[in-house]
From TrEMBL:
Major localization listed first in the record, in broad terms: secreted
UniProt EC number: 3.2.1.78
Coiled-coil intervals, chain numbering: none
Alphabetized Gene3D superfamilies for the sequence: Glycosidases
Compositionally biased spans, kind Basic and acidic residues: 328-338
Domain Glycoside hydrolase family: 37-290
Signal peptide: 1-18
Catalytic activity: Random hydrolysis of (1->4)-beta-D-mannosidic linkages in mannans, galactomannans and glucomannans
Domain of life according to the entry: Eukaryota
InterPro entries listed in its UniProt record: GH, Glyco_hydro_5, MAN-like
Provenance organism: Lyophyllum shimeji
Record keywords, A-Z: Glycosidase, Hydrolase, Secreted, Signal
Protein name in the entry: mannan endo-1,4-beta-mannosidase
Amino acid sequence: MFLVLWQLFLAALAVSAASPTQTIREAKRHNVPVSPFVTTRDGQFFVNGSVFKFVGTNAYWLHALNTDEDIDNTLAAIRAANFTVVRTWAFNDVDTIPENGTWFQHISNGTLTINDGPNGLQKLDKVVELAQKHGLYLLLSFTNNWSPIPGIDQPLPPGFNPLQIRQLQGTNGTNATLPRNALSNSYGGMDTYVRNFGGKQEHDQFYTNQTLINAFMNYTAIIASRYANHSNVFAWELANDPRCNSSIPNSAGCEARNVTRWHATLAAHVQSVDPNHLVSSGNQGYFCADCPKLFPRQVAPPPPPPQHSPAPGVRRRSAPEPLTRSQLLKERKAAWKRERARQKRSGELIGGVKIRGRWTASQTKRQSDLGTGSAFDGAHGVDSEDIINIPQIGFGSFQLFPDQFDYSSGALDTSLPPFNQTLQIGLDWIRRHAEAGQLFGKPVSLTGFGLVTRDNAPFFVPFNTTIAPFGPDQAPPANVTQPFGVTDEQRDEAYRQWIQAGILGGLQGIIQYQWSQSNLTSLQGSAISPVPTESGQTPLTDTSGMSPNDGYGILGQGQTDALQSISVASQGFGPDSA
Ligand SMILES: *[C@@H]1O[C@H](CO)[C@@H](O)[C@H](O)[C@H]1NC(C)=O
Ligand SMILES: *[C@@H]1O[C@H](CO)[C@@H](O)[C@H](O)[C@H]1NC(C)=O
Ligand SMILES: *[C@@H]1O[C@H](CO)[C@@H](O)[C@H](O)[C@H]1NC(C)=O
Ligand SMILES: *[C@@H]1O[C@H](CO)[C@@H](O)[C@H](O)[C@H]1NC(C)=O
Ligand SMILES: *[C@@H]1O[C@H](CO)[C@@H](O)[C@H](O)[C@H]1NC(C)=O
Ligand SMILES: *[C@@H]1O[C@H](CO)[C@@H](O)[C@H](O)[C@H]1NC(C)=O
Ligand SMILES: *[C@@H]1O[C@H](CO)[C@@H](O)[C@H](O)[C@H]1NC(C)=O
Ligand SMILES: *[C@@H]1O[C@H](CO)[C@@H](O)[C@H](O)[C@H]1NC(C)=O
Ligand SMILES: *[C@@H]1O[C@H](CO)[C@@H](O)[C@H](O)[C@H]1NC(C)=O
Ligand SMILES: *[C@@H]1O[C@H](CO)[C@@H](O)[C@H](O)[C@H]1NC(C)=O
Ligand SMILES: *[C@@H]1O[C@H](CO)[C@@H](O)[C@H](O)[C@H]1NC(C)=O
Ligand SMILES: *[C@@H]1O[C@H](CO)[C@@H](O)[C@H](O)[C@H]1NC(C)=O
């Protein structure tokens, strides 16, 4: 049924390959400048006068690769898979200068030093230059909410000797920590500033302490001015997943407005240094229903963005409204009523609900009255509806990682199997964010989404840890009846449905997490480190190096099918207009 609608939708799409002669006419029609830089108008992105919609991939580790050829080959492969935007890290903070590998900024005792040598910002120069060569745009992040240090702000598992961390790498059955830059959370970030400025050890000092704000303004100014004239920088992202809390806990006073205020300050700052590029947030997309806003919506809503006509039989949604607690509770109550009616009909006695292998109590009336869920009540100190309405924030962004975070509002059909519930939570999350974009008249991009598969479960390392649960090459116990993770087929189905929902709902960009690349050069102590051999010898370089897998890599995990699924679903965006 969905497939039929989908085909109708595809057929209805106007094919509009932009030829050079059409560029000026197109620009006039949309009332946008003919600019090689990405701009926005009426909820859409534009490049050279034409609408720009994209499906992209994440590869945070690009600048940490050991050779230019590796960066070149990786970007070529990404382009060949029909992605047009790559989200990657434009930061690499260290508190001790490493022997090997890339680093950009040394933060020590309140002093900042930039490395613009060949293992410093020249690496990022290469990434930008080679992305241009392959016709790829880059979404560049300035920092990360997450940068845990094992044994310092992250307790080690019992019996774990931190001195053995290096020796343990790559062996089976140990709680191995991975080399620096292997995980997305080992590139420094907010807590690296907090630790090395020596003040109060509270994560939110990063957002509210002027000394730390100044330090981060310095870094963003250096990076934004360095690439201000590069039109293949899609946009800046202030931070990956900014929120009140991290592995260094936040102060009791931290709330969404502190994080929003920081966004407003930094977005204005980056825009003043580099007026050519859009600035975005990078947050998880949490809502804060009924929370006081620093940037309240104007009473008269902006005109709705131009939309494709809905396929026959598809009801056009009424104009979206800002999310309220009473609306969320109403949705939850309706779901609860449907569930009760179903149970009554089937005479079923439901003892609990299984969500991704974890049992939670079944919904009772009392629970349905409890609240709106942590993704909707501001519990994380993020109010994505306040952030998107900051004038210097060019577009909305959100993420979707159901293995890590809870996005449910409690209005779920609990008769569905766990996978279908996860799928549905993602579809609801995408729909709500597409609606938020329409409400505020700005484009919205999903900047990262992924599901951990069963094959990938041994590699899965949550953002707030650096310690892999198993040795990297250990299989999960054979007798575990409900293995963690979905099948490859379920992953592909979820990616396909989420992308389609994003396109139909009105998202303007969708970025998968994450790209996998093989045949990379490895070097001890870098992101691509050689895996110790049985004899304990480590080859200095080998050309069979694989890009880091934190549980979301797809190399050897049905990569061809996964990419095919993404590529086919993304054709709904129409021909590449860039
Ligand atoms: C990329 O798109 C082209 C043209 O639509 C198509 O022929 C090709 O199969 C796609 N590549 C992949 C890896 O899906
Ligand atoms: C850190 O900086 C302060 C003030 O500049 C100085 O007094 C202190 O000696 C420094 N500490 C170290 C370990 O360098
Ligand atoms: C690894 O961690 C698990 C759980 O944290 C613990 O039970 C186990 O003993 C640890 N193994 C080693 C070798 O430290
Ligand atoms: C701000 O941070 C600096 C450096 O960490 C610290 O010395 C100062 O006490 C902090 N200010 C406040 C108000 O916490
Ligand atoms: C930021 O840059 C300014 C100007 O270059 C400099 O005076 C200041 O010391 C820098 N701040 C930090 C924390 O490095
Ligand atoms: C991160 O991990 C630390 C240590 O295990 C924990 O205290 C903290 O609550 C975690 N933070 C978040 C936001 O999950
Ligand atoms: C956090 O935001 C609240 C609400 O605007 C404000 O009252 C408070 O002073 C802020 N905290 C800091 C440390 O700036
Ligand atoms: C769960 O999702 C799969 C894949 O989309 C679908 O084939 C199946 O019918 C769904 N199950 C239920 C009970 O909805
Ligand atoms: C690690 O485990 C795999 C099977 O899970 C096995 O093939 C490999 O030989 C083991 N490696 C070591 C160093 O024990
Ligand atoms: C799996 O097997 C191990 C070793 O035989 C045993 O200790 C464990 O309890 C079993 N787990 C389950 C879930 O059956
Ligand atoms: C692996 O990379 C090297 C160096 O970039 C290149 O010469 C070689 O052709 C690549 N091999 C494969 C199989 O891609
Ligand atoms: C750095 O690389 C060299 C080889 O080029 C290696 O001998 C050395 O052990 C590495 N250092 C670290 C800390 O990994």
